[in-house]
Specification:
Layout lengths: L6 E7 L2 E7 L1 H11 L2 H9 L9 H23 L8 H11 L1 H21 L2
Antiparallel strand pairs: 1-2
Helix pairs in contact: 1-3, 3-4
């Protein structure tokens, strides 16, 4: 994963649009906490725990991606939407559905890295 492309995915829950962004800022946060994107990915897709996603890793990554989307939106529109806490993110994922949330998050990362590789 030498390069990444800034990819934004949107999903709707309870009438609100959320933007997930995987960029260098998110990558840095994940690497800082989990060492590598690969280590984190194994936790979120369940390959490290008999198919069960690691809740802490899912919540962390999802929060980082949502908060990056919020930060970008605030910069672009001049709004002041507050970032989500880990607990708020956990509740959002629970309501939205763990499998759906994990899928949209992992697809954001995959699309971000595949787009960069195709453009090289």
């Amino acid at each position: 994963m030498a390069d990444i492309k800034d990819i934004t995915k949107e999903f709707e829950h309870k009438g609100k649009i959320y933007r997930l962004v995987f960029d260098l800022n998110v990558m840095e946060a994940i690497q800082d906490k989990y060492g590598t994107i690969e280590n984190w990915g194994k936790l979120t897709d369940g390959t490290e725990n008999d198919g069960e996603p690691n809740a802490k890793a899912v919540i962390f990554g999802f929060r980082e991606m949502i908060n990056e989307g919020i930060d970008i939106m605030n910069e672009e529109t001049g709004t002041d939407v507050k970032p989500l806490t880990l607990k708020q993110t956990g509740r959002l994922i629970t309501e939205y559905g763990l499998l759906k949330a994990t899928k949209v998050m992992n697809n954001t990362v995959i699309d971000s890295t595949q787009s960069a590789e195709k453009n090289v």
